[in-house]
TrEMBL record:
Protein name: DOMON domain-containing protein
One Pfam family recorded for the sequence: Cu2_monoox_C
UniProt signal peptide: 1-18
Family: Belongs to the copper type II ascorbate-dependent monooxygenase family.
PANTHER family the record matches: DOPAMINE BETA HYDROXYLASE RELATED (PTHR10157), MOXD1 HOMOLOG 1 (PTHR10157:SF23)
Species the sequence originates in: Sinanodonta woodiana
Record flagged with keyword Ribosomal protein: no
Domain DOMON intervals: 35-152
Entry keyword set: Disulfide bond, Glycoprotein, Signal
Keyword Disulfide bond: yes
Length: 528
């Protein structure tokens, strides 16, 4: 085995103008006579690292060859296709393979890696949400400890999905603390049976007795009336997710005199598909500290209200829904405060049909740049995404959450709901400083919907009309539905644990923009 076969890591950067290397490389060589191809490198006893900078709009190749020939050689290629950067905010699917033997160099034959030594994973390469544990970091201190919220040996049904809730009183924390991290606690072997876990806290006051549900499980969709007060999202997990650290200057308040003391853990279970008697004690773990951070964070649960109004026709390869948090609702959440929200993280929640998600701010009649726009979204990789720098949301702004679905595999309509045959479109928006709003959900009124003969469809008849349409044949109604969603009056419902009354409504004309945002090219333009 050659020295280089321990590990060779190539970094290929395509530049159109001269740039400094991204790291301290002591060795550099210009490879071509025109000075377009510059190679940087460094090495130690086990690794050699390359970086190349090339003045070109085309592809770049770097390889190692015995005699300078292109074959046989080890070559890495990189390029940017029509200004499309492959490493951006989109979800990137990394593939990997390996073998425990070197290739047969005599026959120039690469041995097959086999079924076990290969795979793929979803990653957000430019939005880092998981940090390594570093006991010397200021993230951690002797005052940090963990608190678990887990299910109580729930039996997962082999044929039925379930939406299971369990209530908890918060133990006495001895004073105010800050949440600085949350992470999943998933029972080994149960990963494929859990669709999502969310932790909420409840503004119940002293007058409401919840002792009957403390430590006890119940069907979330048949919950006791007290659960209507459990509106504040606190932490969550969905497939592909891992632990999330808040920035070092930000924490979520718990244990203060004004903080809720009752919590509800909600878990969405899939059917096991065969195994019987599978027990589950999965849940979420919070890491807390008494060393309080400078900023206190909160969430806005934004997106589509879960109801039939979140309506998806079948056989649509790309169908987009929009949900607005209105100007009035956000102003209600700001109350008398003027300092802006600073968005630092976003976690999207969908079911299996979603293929793209996006979140944006609308200021006056101007589209601001997307906070996040992921055109390669995977429902199997729903994590809290850290933003590289906070995005400002001002008093008087609107929020827009978009989800794009591929319903090509469905022959019937898909409605908003909690189970796998349904769909959702939500964005859990983490921001600071905390305001007086926990959620802001939107839906269309469909008041501009026309029937197949262009007659107005009455509001009380809308669902029946849509549900009875032959979507596999009626292309005119497909067009009418899309026009209605692009022009109809919109609704927003906003709510808070910390306001009285605890919710507000708004209805407004479908937003029209005077200035639309155009995404800049991901590649700088200049002379080659």
């Amino acid at each position: 085995m050659s020295v280089l076969s321990y590990l060779v890591f190539y970094t290929i950067l395509v530049y159109v103008i001269a740039q400094m290397p991204t790291a301290d490389f002591p060795y550099v060589r210009t490879l071509d006579k025109n000075g377009k191809f510059v190679l940087y490198w460094n090495f130690n006893d086990t690794h050699i690292t390359f970086e190349v900078q090339v003045r070109t709009f085309g592809y770049v190749g770097l390889g190692i060859s015995r005699d300078g020939s292109m074959y046989p050689a080890d070559v890495v290629l990189g390029w940017v296709n029509n200004d499309l950067a492959y490493f951006g905010e989109n979800t990137t699917r990394i593939i990997y393979s390996f073998h425990d033997q070197d290739p047969d160099t005599e026959k120039f034959q690469l041995l097959w890696h086999g079924k076990e030594n290969r795979g793929s994973v979803n990653l957000h390469l430019t939005q880092i949400s998981v940090l390594p544990y570093d006991p010397t970091s200021t993230q951690w201190s002797s005052t940090a400890w963990t608190l678990d919220f887990i299910n109580n040996n729930f039996t997962i049904h082999e044929q039925r999905e379930a939406y299971r809730c369990i209530g908890f009183y918060l133990p006495d924390l001895g004073g105010k603390s800050h949440i600085i991290r949350f992470e999943p606690k998933i029972d080994a072997g149960n990963e494929d049976y859990i669709q999502g876990i969310s932790l909420y806290r409840c503004n119940i006051g002293d007058a409401v007795n919840v002792s009957q549900i403390h430590g006890h499980g119940f069907n979330c969709l048949e919950a006791p009336p007290v659960i209507q007060y459990c509106k504040e999202f606190l932490a969550g997990w969905a497939p592909g997710g891992e632990g999330f650290y808040l920035p070092e200057n930000v924490g979520i308040s718990v244990g203060d005199s004004n903080d809720p003391v009752f919590y509800v853990l909600a878990t969405q279970y899939k059917a096991t598909g065969g195994p019987q008697g599978v027990k589950d004690t999965s849940g979420l773990r919070l890491t807390l500290t008494r060393s309080l951070r400078r900023q206190e964070a909160g969430y806005i649960d934004a997106g589509s209200y879960i109801s039939w109004q979140h309506f998806l026709p079948p056989r649509e390869p790309e169908f987009t829904t929009k949900a607005y948090c209105s100007q009035k609702c956000l102003m209600w959440g700001f109350k008398d405060t003027l300092d802006p929200m600073n968005v630092i993280g976003v976690m999207f929640k969908t079911h299996s049909l979603a293929k793209a998600v996006a979140l944006r701010v609308i200021r006056d009649r101007t589209e601001m740049p997307w906070i996040i726009k992921d055109d390669k979204y995977s429902p199997n990789y729903q994590i809290m995404r850290s933003l590289r720098k906070p995005v400002t949301v001002q008093k008087g702004d609107r929020l827009l959450v978009e989800c794009t679905y591929d319903t090509s595999s469905r022959t019937r309509t898909t409605l908003g709901g909690y189970f796998s045959e349904n769909e959702v479109c939500r964005a859990y928006i983490l921001y600071y400083p905390k305001k007086f709003i926990d959620g802001c959900l939107g839906w269309s009124s469909y008041d501009h919907l026309r029937g197949r003969f262009q007659e107005p469809v009455l509001s009380e008849d809308t669902f029946a009309y849509l549900n009875s349409t032959d979507w596999l044949r009626d292309q005119e109604m497909r067009r009418n539905l899309k026009v209605a969603l692009a022009t109809s009056t919109e609704h927003s419902f906003c709510y808070s644990n910390n306001q009285a009354p605890q919710n507000a409504f708004d209805h407004f004309d479908h937003p029209q923009y005077s200035i639309r945002h155009t995404a800049p090219s991901t590649c700088p333009q200049g002379a080659v």
